[in-house]
Amino acid sequence: MKIAFVGIKREYQKMDLEYRNFFTRFHLELPYYYANDPLNEVTVTTVDVDWPDAFYEDNRDAWGNRSDPIVHYQLEEHFVKFNQRPDVVIHWRKWFPEFYKPGAINLINCQDHSFSQEWLKNVKEAVDNKYLNGILCFPGWHKRNLQKETQLPEKLLLDGVTLGVDTDIYIPHEGKSPYEMLWSSDPGRGLSGAIELALKLYQKDKRFRLNICYPDYAATPQKLMHPALVWHGSVKNSQKLFNLFNVCGILPYTSTFKEPSSRAHRQAQAAGCLVLYPPNMGTPSELIMNGQTGIVSEPSTWPDKIIEVINNGEWETIGKKAREFAVSQNWKVQANNFYNLIEKISKEINPYARY
């Protein structure tokens, strides 16, 4: 199956060579994991670089043995100009009419929760013209919110595929400590609440530490110096980040607004962490099974809950169940879900199509 991801709009040439693949794998995620299936041919459009297959041969030292799946990178203008038709075109977060390919299945990968009038207008026109075949969204709150804002028929909101997690990268390490907590997200999503929690826990037990890191695209927060806080700064997707997840025992995600999904909580579950998440804060609040694969409650209750589950050992039990859940929903599973979804859509469009 030929799959094209269009409209990503990131400048690859500004990234370090060795980080480009990390960006595709651990930030975009979808193209990398769909390319992991040798039956798929995956293309990502770029604004600044064309990478033919020879690129990987010429840069073998930087890319290692190229055990990673091949993702082809093509300039947007070439994608538009050349008369090639993928089986599936996935528009990144919004509708790009210039990248519409007649005869292909055209989808939007939606990871947002509020939309401008222009976004809504373009999507409605694409649906009315029968150009857009559906929107990939997250199950539960995100799908309901998307339907409320777009007023689209439910059949066009496709929640059969969600973001997975690489359970071969995020793995609980031996000696994982519940006193080592982690904040790994945009600071604007509730870091201040996690810091407040860490300071309260430190007053109860001086072993508590909150390890703080954030992605390279996030604004640098003002640092509060305290023994309970360990600042790692901006950390790219790398072994350092993986180790933080795999060693720390608790991820308190003090989200301050409703979110479609959360990479951090999925990665933490895969790493066997106890994840704490506020109620009624979007999709994660519904997907975390309270008391089984995490704790969903008001952050004001977290200090006492954390102390309780550490003392009775329940934090470890919940972490193991979270790991099992993450494996059951990992990228291999999601890629298979995607294949089945496309097969279903293709049969509705063309009953003789086969993938």
Largest sheet: 7 strands, parallel
Instruction: Give the tally of β-strands.
Output: 13
Give the helix proportion (percent range): 25-40%
- The fraction of residues in strands falls at 15-25%
How many helices? The count is 14
CATH class of the largest domain: Alpha Beta
As for the CATH topology of the largest domain, it is Rossmann fold
> Which CATH architecture of the largest domain would you pick?
3-Layer(aba) Sandwich
N-to-C span: 6 Å
Order of helical and strand elements: EHHEHHEHEEHEHEEHEEHEHEHEHHH
- Uncertain stretches of 5 or more adjacent residues: 54-58, 351-355
Structural class: alpha/beta
- Kindly provide the radius of gyration, computed on alpha-carbon positions and rounded to a whole number of angstroms: 21 Å
Please indicate the count of domains.
2
Strand order of the biggest β-sheet: 3-2-1-4-5-6-7
Task: Indicate the mean pLDDT.
Answer: 89
Mass-distribution shape: globular
Care to describe what's here?
- The protein is α/β, with parallel strands linked by helices and 355 residues long.
- It has two domains: 2-164 and 331-349, 3-Layer(aba) Sandwich (Rossmann fold), CATH 3.40.50; 177-328, Glycogen Phosphorylase B (Rossmann fold).
- 38% of the residues lie in helices and 17% in strands.
- It has 14 helices and 13 strands.
- The protein has a seven-stranded parallel beta sheet, with helices on both faces.
- Helix 10 links the parallel strand 11 (248-252) and strand 12 (274-277).
- Helix 10 (263-270) packs across helix 13.
- The longest helix has 19 residues, at 331-349.
- Residues 54-58 and 351-355 have low confidence and may be disordered.
